[in-house]
TrEMBL record:
Keyword Transmembrane set for record: yes
Protein name: Interleukin-1 receptor type 1-like isoform X1
GO MF, one example: interleukin-1 receptor activity
Name of the gene: LOC115026795
Superkingdom, taxonomy of origin: Eukaryota
Residues annotated as domain TIR: 375-544
InterPro entries per record: Ig-like_dom_sf, Ig-like_fold, IL-1_rcpt_fam, IL-1_rcpt_I/II-typ, TIR_dom, Toll_tir_struct_dom_sf
Signal found in the keyword field: yes
TM spans (from-to): 333-362
Length: 558
């Protein structure tokens, strides 16, 4: 019997505990709180930002804490709720307090939303607590935004906007924002946004006010300018760090809503490794902000990247594109310049050393100017035998009779007139010299030590009548043709040393020719001197006519 009583007691305790758990209210989660300061006599439509406006009245309950005010869903009541929103159709000071909306969704979860309202008897002109955030910036044009509760009420209830300034109506303004272009100090004041809306065929009014402040100092432009970079390209060295400046001018006395920065291929540079961006702002009245992008080490990818410098303010955005270009190394340029210089020097040296060889090589293929077609002889050979010693006389005879003809005539095809060989016995010497001189294209003067000293006799070297003519009259005639008539070019060949007196003993006309063109020194005794392609004979051939008076095969000339 006692065992049965204990079992029944335990069962009753279990049933009571289970029943109490089922009938207990679920625990609700408290969410955010909003607070408004409002004027007496206005209307209010309030919907918490976390609530939807289409909730059924069964899902939500509004009540005022520590108050006997009963909030119902009856739309004829001064204070009621509908669809999750709380309506105050005529605000009174006793409506001040904390209101709670308890929302139970179909899943059984519970949430509490809080709304605190304070109602004042006076208006925003005398009570600063009724003012929303002030409008204060350095922009030329001002924008006064309608406070959120009024904006939201007009948007949800399809109301109409009007504006007041310092309790005076502003006709013609029916937008959610009030804009003032080129604001001046006279435009500052309290601007009130008024929304007139209808509920149950009755008209109500909600309002919100802001203070607009306008600085007395002038404000310049609102359009921004990119001061740098000014070029689309900037040179950089791969593997070396570089700094890029993005400098933006926002205007005078502008200290807000101004920004500058860099983008790399439209991506923020702060997200890229190896990039560092810092900012520098000019503290003067002219607002200039500079974004400095530091690239620790320029890579090949950076040379392909498009960097954008941008500047923004409240109205406009400007940008400039910059790309990095690999700086050309100076080494290839210097190397190329040195190569060109060396080539030019080499060519100059080559031409200097082989100018005569080149001239002789191409002479047969070049046109001939001033060609004396009726000439019989290519050169008239002038020499002097008097006042020379035995050795010099032998050397001169050897050169005149053997060496000169064997090279110029036999190997090169030229025709020479040489006294003692080509003159006709018995012919008048004066006429002979004049006639042969006229028929010659060059005057070849053979100089020897003592040559040109005149026809004066000495005890050691008596002057014969014939020797006095050779090297005397023909010299005079030849120099006359070369210097005065300019009919002949002169070729000067020096045999032996000039001696201590040099060329001072020669006639003045001959000295003049020597100054213009130094004599060619005959290298007597040197190896290969008699060869027709030696350096000496190339110089002589260069001074001789391009075409011999008597035509020979080309192979025999070159």
């Amino acid at each position: 019997m006692r065992k049965m009583d204990h079992s029944r007691l335990l069962f009753l305790i279990f049933v009571v505990i289970r029943t109490s758990e089922e009938t207990a209210e679920p625990q609700c989660v408290d969410l955010g709180k909003e607070s408004y300061n409002l004027s007496e006599g206005e209307a209010l439509y309030f919907l918490h930002y976390d609530l939807e406006n289409n909730l059924s009245d069964e899902e939500i309950t509004w009540f005022k804490e520590n108050s006997s005010i009963e909030i119902t869903t009856d739309e004829n009541e001064n204070v009621h709720y509908h669809g999750g929103a709380l309506f105050f159709l005529n605000l009174l000071t006793e409506h001040s307090g904390l209101y709670t909306a308890r929302h139970k969704d179909p899943s059984g979860e519970c949430y509490n939303y809080f709304f605190k309202v304070v109602v004042f008897k006076d208006g925003p002109m005398t009570n600063k607590k009724l003012l929303y955030a002030d409008i204060k910036n350095s922009d030329i044009s001002k924008r006064v935004t309608c406070p959120r509760p009024v904006d939201h009420t007009c948007s949800e209830l399809k109301g109409n906007f009007t504006w007041n300034k310092d309790n005076k109506p502003l006709p013609g303004y029916h937008e959610v924002d009030f804009r003032i272009d080129n604001a001046k100090p006279k435009d500052k004041g309290i601007y009130t946004c008024i929304c007139t809306w209808t509920h149950n065929n009755k008209e109500y009014m909600s309002s919100g006010s802001r203070r607009l402040q306008v600085d007395d100092y002038p404000i310049s432009i609102r359009e921004i300018q990119i001061l740098s970079p000014t070029n689309k390209e900037q040179f950089a060295d791969e593997g070396v760090g570089i700094k890029l400046n993005c400098t933006v001018f926002c205007g005078t006395n502008v200290d807000r809503h101004c920004d500058a920065g860099w983008l790399a291929n439209e991506n923020p540079v702060d997200q890229i490794d190896g990039y560092n961006q810092t900012f520098i702002q000019d503290p003067s009245n002219t607002t200039i902000i500079t974004a400095v992008l530091t690239i620790e080490q320029v890579s090949a990818q950076d040379l392909k990247t498009q960097f954008k410098c941008f500047g923004t303010n409240s109205y406009t955005t400007e940008s400039a594109i910059l790309t990095l270009q690999q700086r050309e190394s100076i080494i290839p340029l210097v190397t190329g310049g040195l190569c060109v210089l060396l080539i030019c020097v080499f060519a100059a040296v080559l031409i200097k050393c082989f100018a005569i060889d080149l001239a002789l090589l191409f002479r047969p293929y070049l046109p001939i100017s001033n060609y004396k077609k009726d000439a019989v002889y290519d050169a008239y050979v002038v020499y002097q035998m008097q006042n020379v010693d035995k050795f010099t006389e032998d050397s001169l005879c050897q050169f005149i009779t053997n060496v000169l003809p064997s090279v110029l005539e036999e190997k090169c095809g030229y025709r020479l007139f040489i006294h003692g060989r080509d003159d006709i016995p018995g012919e008048d010497l004066l006429e002979l010299v004049e006639d042969r001189m006229q028929q010659s294209r060059r005057l070849m003067v053979i100089l020897t030590p003592g040559s040109g000293s005149g026809s004066e006799s000495t005890d050691q070297h008596p002057v014969s009548p014939r020797n006095s003519m050779i090297g005397g009259f023909d010299w005079q005639v030849g120099l006359h043709h070369a210097l005065f008539q300019r009919e002949m070019s002169v070729i000067l060949i020096q045999l032996g040393d000039t001696g201590p007196q040099g060329y001072t003993h020669l006639p003045a006309g001959l000295q003049h020719l020597i100054l213009k063109s130094a004599p060619i020194q005959w290298p007597e005794g040197s190896r290969g001197a008699a060869a027709w392609n030696s350096r000496f004979w190339k110089r002589v051939r260069y001074l001789m006519p391009a075409r011999p008076a008597k035509i020979y095969p080309l192979s025999a000339i070159i």
